[in-house]
Amino acid sequence: xxxxxxxxxxxxxxxxxxxxxxxxxxxxxxxxxxxxxxxxxxxxxxxxxxxxxxxxxxxxxxxxxxxxxxxxxxxxxxxxxxxxxxxxxxxxxxxxxxxxxxxxxxxxxxxxxxxxxxxxxxxxxxxxxxxxxxxxxxxxxxxxxxxxxxxxxxxxxxxxxxxxxxxxxxxxxxxxxxxxxxxxxxxxxxxxxxxxxxxxxxxxxxxxxxxxxxxxxxxxxxxxxxxxxxxxxxxxxxxxxxxxxxxxxxxxxxxxxxxxxxxxxxxxxxxxxxxxxxxxxxxxxxxxxx
Length: 290
Known about the structure:
The chain is α+β, with helices and mostly antiparallel strands. Helices cover 14% and strands 29% of the residues. It has a domain of 124 residues: Immunoglobulin-like, CATH 2.60.40. Strand 3 and strand 4 form a beta hairpin.
């Protein structure tokens, strides 16, 4: 697409004009539950009339499935216990209707996993000022913030259901130590079995539970994951390689990433709050560099 040149007379004043436009739009006020000019929602919940519609339909038909379309978290705790099924469709594109029908009618098992935690209420979120000129995000946001504060989300990071059932067993770990030519890794192995009635995909997630002695660290951090598709009744031995750098933390005093000495628990889990299957690896303190 060809870009039209600016009017010659406007060019010297363009910076002032754009600043004026930004100043005017900063006064845009959203209706309750609506959007700001920048696109930020003032509420993560559905509109009251939509919630009322869900309640009325669910009361008439207890087998109602609610399908949510959106690009981010949508609060549902005030009504999701009224329905047996809830599906987050995201923005699926032109083939979304076909994909939705395949899932709703059981031709395909859902296998998506949440890339963020969905809070139970908005008070679990960090303070939010849509007109702030600058926002600082540190380590403590998302599921790390919730776990640090002892808060339970409506749906945790990594959560997702399936029409089938999977069993995880026989976790194992072997450490390949740091050398002059490599920073080392942990080789993990796990048996995954599809014990349900249909073919489906499982997403095995690996979370680190560090010693946390050197400095304060998140209770759990995702360090690896792998998806695998299994037919009904099939089982498979899964192998994952986790670089030791993924287990390290940044030490400001040394200006470098450091492995903590002690037992680091690696947990095979279905989501961030799942108890899962832990396997411990004993590590020596080691500086991995910047």
